[in-house]
């Protein structure tokens, strides 16, 4: 088993129209406004930017995100990631009654040296850290879509 390899899936049920959710998720530069753990997004060009995230654990992850797919009709946004993590992430959106179901899939390999050294003993903690980040992101996006401010992480 490669202890530096991770697969994640999160499902967010949001009380907002799919078009609003899609627009918010497609605008990565604004993520720091509603997702507390996304500390910074610095555009490099029309399709890529540098992202810095930090959740509950005392380290930052920095990676370049490059848009691979932006398909409004299919409700899909996908990026390739290189840097402290290498891999991909994808949002897939679907109408769910009056709201939207957002599915987040991610497959990455950790390349940051500290996290590679701690891969085996830290795996459960790293997964929990990711889960905390995703919960805070869902809360933040829900508030943002309704004109509010995100609650505490």
Question: Could you please describe the fold and organization of this structure?
Answer:
The structure is a single chain. This protein has one domain (5-145): 2-Layer Sandwich (Alpha-D-Glucose-1,6-Bisphosphate, Chain A, domain 4), CATH 3.30.530.20. Helices cover 29% and strands 42% of the residues. It is built from 4 helices and 7 strands, in the order βααββββββαα. It has helices at residues 18-26, 31-34, 113-117, 119-145; strands spanning 5-14, 38-43, 48-53, 61-71, 76-83, 85-96, 99-110. A hairpin with a 7-residue loop joins strand 3 (48-53) and strand 4 (61-71). The longest helix has 27 residues, at 119-145. The chain is globular, with a radius of gyration of 15 Å.
Pick out its properties:
Alpha-D-Glucose-1,6-Bisphosphate, Chain A, domain 4, 42% strand, alpha+beta, globular, 7 strands, 4 helices, 153 residues, seven-stranded antiparallel beta sheet
Brief sketch in words of this structure:
By secondary structure, the protein is an alpha+beta fold.
Stretches where pLDDT falls below 50 for ≥5 residues? none
The share of residues in helices is 25-40%
Proportion of residues in β-strands: 35-45%
Strand order of the largest sheet: 1-7-6-5-4-3-2
Radius of gyration: 15 Å
Q: Could you give me the name of the CATH homologous superfamily? A: START domain
Shape verdict: globular
Number of domains: 1
List the helices and strands and how they pair.
Layout: E1 5-14, H1 18-26, H2 31-34, E2 38-43, E3 48-53, E4 61-71, E5 76-83, E6 85-96, E7 99-110, H3 113-117, H4 119-145
Antiparallel strand pairs: 1-7, 2-3, 3-4, 4-5, 5-6, 6-7
């Amino acid at each position: 088993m490669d202890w530096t390899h991770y697969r994640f899936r999160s499902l967010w049920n949001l009380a907002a129209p799919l078009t609003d959710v899609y627009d918010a998720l497609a605008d990565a530069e604004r993520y720091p406004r509603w997702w507390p753990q996304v500390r910074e997004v610095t555009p490099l060009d029309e399709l890529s930017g540098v992202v810095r995230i930090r959740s509950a654990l005392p380290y930052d992850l920095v990676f370049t995100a490059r848009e691979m797919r932006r398909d409004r009709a299919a409700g899909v946004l996908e990026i390739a990631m290189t840097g402290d993590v290498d891999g991909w992430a994808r949002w897939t959106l679907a109408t769910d009654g009056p709201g939207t179901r957002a599915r987040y899939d991610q497959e990455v390999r950790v390349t940051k040296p500290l996290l590679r050294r701690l891969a085996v003993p830290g795996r459960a903690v790293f997964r929990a850290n990711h889960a905390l980040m995703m919960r805070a992101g869902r809360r933040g996006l829900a508030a943002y879509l309704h004109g509010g401010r995100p609650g505490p992480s």
